[in-house]
Specification:
Chain lengths: 309, 309
């Protein structure tokens, strides 16, 4: 059994109760505590030494990333993060200055987004630093944006540029909190997710949750400069493949009714002139992702390879 | 710098915001989201293979313990746990059946206490299993019991029996949720904590937070059978020392006004006839812990050794 099969098994039959609006399977859990205005968003994530970072990286950026990943998930629900707890696993030979700088980076991002860091727990974790972050946030009742609302005919959008995050962006990305809130306030966003597993993977989550398919135009993909530079060094992966499959972009992926697309693009340019917004395709009936390039439509397999459809 | 000095440093100057009622330094963080009736309790904790458990232990009990530790902290605030998220670090050679049984044990305890398990995250953690649990709970506005409310003249109580938890109880303890809620509903509990670091350590947390001292009577300490059995094998640690310093008892430690003590004991016996409640001493002006035995008063040092006062 691999990790994904295990997760699927562990996700079945989890205990619930009357607070659960949306449990396992979206960017955050959504909980209803009878607050007159708000629902609550609950999320944990972890970064692990040797898996997500090394001691050669700037510790401030490691701490920043640990929190930013969770904030990106709160953004993906159109929510507002409020409080965070840090669980820190420390190896025997931990360097206190390094750990303090991890916290400095995390705290600086928390301050920027008015997130309170309200404690946590420290434990031994022989061999490596393990940083788990739990975040509690809020969203106005009924305004949470799930993965499950995409409909045939919807336009598909992504913020920013995609691919090549590993060179730099994965340590420096901005959680799109303000942008997501603005979107949910001014438009009827049908479905949204943040891009952590790569566009193709995260779009598949939306498609499966919504019971629909999608067609993506390669010419519309906002390929990052980093992805193009990497493709020069490693021609086996094209810039388009990088934009489709590289993880940790932490941009927003969302859908709106096709009729709203032009109005949304115009309003976005006025509101966020420095952040690119791209319409990359449309939601279709059916299932799976079709990629359309100059040579015609192709199906995209789980490894990011294109096949003639 | 050791771990405790590091934690003290990391705990200073953490980012706050207007939701924070009680941040770092109590059993849970207490947050105010403007809910008309409730405040929110937020807590994380972790258990790590080779530190808190081994693969030789029953996996159901490992999962149970991972959640129970957090529930014990919610109990220590007189709160009600509502939802949990699990962050799971997995080594390369993980045994899927073992992990599923960890979840079985965790889920069973969650069901018992009507806690929803609303997802989590899985990551690689080369070398060992790492289980971090985040719990969100509620407490009626103003009914949260902190560590900081102990006053001179208070009677000090503990539930259950103390010491020797390592033989068995650390994997099987019952979070005292119903008991703590009953206490807070019927009495004015001045201060409360759960016993995770050992009676002396956790009492010190209360004393420091409250700016008071305490006198404990050794004859009143409810020493567990496990602690007595261990003392026979290892005469270097007396049963009283075990009750004072062994970790992971996960009982409630609390104080009430001296005048409430007898009434509380009587009411407790009717309400919880199967669970021992012991008055072990009293809060005094000053600082630190004085232990009184047949030979007179002694001061207790940080290592659990007694010195003539």
């Amino acid at each position: 059994m691999n990790e994904f099969e295990l997760i699927a098994r562990l996700s079945r039959g989890l205990p619930g109760n009357s607070t659960v609006v949306t449990g396992c399977g979206d960017d955050c859990a959504v909980l209803d505590f009878g607050h007159p205005e708000n629902l609550f968003l609950f999320k944990t994530d972890a970064v692990v030494e040797g898996v997500h970072f090394t001691r050669e990286m700037a510790p401030e950026k490691i701490g920043r990333k640990a929190l930013a990943r969770c904030l990106s998930d709160i953004a993906a629900m159109a929510g507002t993060p409020a409080a965070a707890l840090i669980t820190l696993g420390l190896p025997e030979d931990f360097n206190a200055g390094f750990i303090e700088k991890i916290y400095d980076g995390l705290n600086a991002l928390a301050r920027k987004h008015q997130v309170a860091v309200v404690g946590g727990e420290t434990t031994a974790n022989p061999g490596r630093i393990f940083i788990s972050v739990a975040v509690l946030g809020t969203v106005a009742r009924g305004k949470q944006v799930l993965r499950s609302g995409a409909r045939p005919g919807d336009a598909i959008f992504v913020t920013g540029e995609l691919g090549g995050s590993i060179s730099e962006k994965h340590l420096e990305f901005e959680p799109r909190i303000a942008e997501a809130q603005w979107l949910a306030r001014h438009f009827s966003i049908h479905a949204m997710a943040d891009l952590s597993d790569g566009l193709a993977g995260d779009l598949r989550h939306i498609l499966r949750s919504s019971g629909v398919g999608a067609e993506i135009l390669t010419t519309a993909l906002p390929v990052s400069r980093a992805a193009k530079l990497q493709a020069r060094k490693n021609p086996a992966k094209s810039p388009v493949a990088a934009a489709l499959t590289d993880g940790e972009d932490f941009e927003l992926l969302f859908t709106v009714a096709g009729g709203d697309a032009v109005k949304l693009l115009d309003a976005w340019k006025k509101q966020f002139p420095k952040l690119k917004l791209s319409c990359i395709g449309k939601i279709a009936a059916g299932a799976g992702i079709v990629i359309r390039d100059k040579s015609g439509p192709h199906s995209l397999d789980a490894h990011g390879y294109l096949h003639f459809a």
